[in-house]
Batch of 2 targets.
Target 1
Amino acid sequence: MKQDIVLKVNGKNFHVNVETQRTLVEVLRETLGFTGTKKACNEGECGACTVLMDGRPVASCLVLAVAAQGKEIVTIEGLSQGEKLHPVQEAFVKHAAIQCGFCTPGMVMAAAGYLAENPDPTTEEVRKAISGNLCRCTGYQQIVDAVMAAASAMKG
Amino acid sequence: MFIRRLPEFEYHTPATLPEAIDLMGRYGESSRLIAGGTDLLVAMKKREAACGHLISLANVEGLKGIFFNDKEGLRIGSGTTLSEIEKSDAVRKMYMPLWDAVSVMASAQVKNLATIGGNLASAVPSADTAPPLIALGASVRLKGRTGERTCKVEDFFLGPKACCCGKDEIVTDILVPAPEPLSAGCYLKLMRRQAMDLALVGVAVCLTLGKDKKLCAGARVALGAVAPTPIRVPEAEERILGKPIDESTAAEAARIAGSQCRPISDLRSSLEYRCSMVEVLTKRAVLQAGKRIEGV
């Protein structure tokens, strides 16, 4: 059954008409065109669909779109301020943390969400924070370096 | 083994417990409760679970929160997320086995959605919150059409994916007694990976030292993933009671625990390896609990 809902994504309200069985990742990608968020495993294991919901990283493939009403959703598209990259994005570029780029939106969202609450992590803590994100290309080291560098930069 | 898009269903968002119970009665067998959805939605995508009606507990009042007082102990609303439990000072300081468990479960992206009630009600033999709660002597509160009742977590599970929740009942709270002086515990989880894996073996131990600070006066040992349900091992507990918490006591209790578990061989691990690892982890857990008492 279709429902009219309002989703607040990247600071804007979107009025959409969706079926109850649509997940947030599907509506973000297919209805709203925010294709930065990826649908990979579709079972909450790989982290490619990670978005922030009320500031917290969640697997958007496990959230029903109708259940995301009333929440603030931030996708990778909403992280940068116009042309100005978020420190985590800057660090990823600088530290060669991006190869094919498919895991990157999810990694960046998981890291950004984590650093917002834990601004001074150890490398062990960073590894744990991104343990829900799989990367087949980099072997993770550059990603950990990038997140540590971003933390440093954000402490200013 | 295919993951597909979700099948069609109707979605209900009751605001109160009586409304939710009413919906359960109305839709009966064709309805399922959904909290975080991290288990149910995956099962539905794999077509392992089918239902025409999902009754969401997300907006039901009174199911969230972590409350502690010295007399009654800890009360966790069943709808509290695993992340909220991981961030709780009260849980980490006074109920560390439970904190140990949530800190090795899934990932942040899952724990920000998954609930403790859902972890228990899913009743999988490897549910990580179960052994710590059993070792802590916890109970669940269930509310249904005819009233409410409590059930010890060690009696809650009936078999793989089966718990004693009635057709009209909802788990509302997890209740853990106030911690005793000179007591501590831990939960150890063996996985094939460093994260994002089911437990091959889970061991929870809670120990209380006698007032003389020499001999163990209370012991609870619980195992996960090595039987059709999470189990308590009184035979191992008896080996620790009245003894000092040292290498030989730990080794003896571990040997008994390893002989009492009834695991299966599956794609993750063999029966023999699991029994062997129960022994290894139980010894470590007993000694770790002892160390934590000293630190307390």
Target 2
Amino acid sequence: MLTWSEFAGEAPEMAAAGRRLLYQFGIGLGYLATVRGDGAPRLHPFCPIFWADGLYGLILPESPKCGDLARDGRYAIHACNPQDRDDEFVVSGVARLAGERVAAVRAAFLTSPGATSTGTETCFEFLIDRALHAAYKPRSEGNTWPPAYTRWRAGG
Amino acid sequence: MVRWGAFESAAPELAANGRRLLYQGETGAGFLGTVRKDGGPRVHPIFPILADGELFGFIVNLGWKYHDLVRDGRYALHSFPSAEGGEEFYVTGRAVLVTDAGRRARVVAATGDRQGKADFEALFAFDIERALHTHWANWGTPATWPTFTKWGR
């Protein structure tokens, strides 16, 4: 299970592509899947934040996904595709509480356009054990299938 | 657990918002959350289809999410970001593999023959247990605040 920077050290092109997709709107945007208490999946948008060496999220403590991550840190994050093509980027691993970094992560987040904070969020760092990138041709080229897949897994 | 049509009858405004947010382009689009064999979450894009009073999706039968749904049909489906921002639609429930050829043919026809023509595209019906529409007032400003409309248990 690696930090974002460690992952980027092992798979720099993929990490760069993933970062571009997660930050394509100026503010981070991804879809965060977690596991509910009954084992079913939960899925909601959230704002991934790159700070220092890591990938972070500020999650409202009263939100169900905060409870999910505190109980079972396993997560998957999927980026949105760009407007003209269907590129995909997904990472998964385990989230861990990072309360001691919350002020710095919040300060970094608030530099993004449109970012807001209640000042009460719980800070998680997302450690990575798998990543997948799918690069498609632009939709204007007609048949874009199949994409070029790149996969990475911690420890090879 | 109900089909889309029953959900639509019970909560027409919520269902209309859901349909609009799932169909922001020519085809439906959303993110599908499933449960991996080891119990961890998985998320991938999907093209949801509303046809015949049901919510469907074609899923390649070689992919992980196909195996997830066959093993444990519990799913979560979220709309793509709304064009203007500030709106979300979310449903959860259980997906069931559709093997009836006539039902499949109707869904293929509903996509204008763009989906489901290949045998490796498995058809799932997504029954609905809960639905949520979120509207963010003052979107993109520090004063943004959500209003939730919920249906289901």
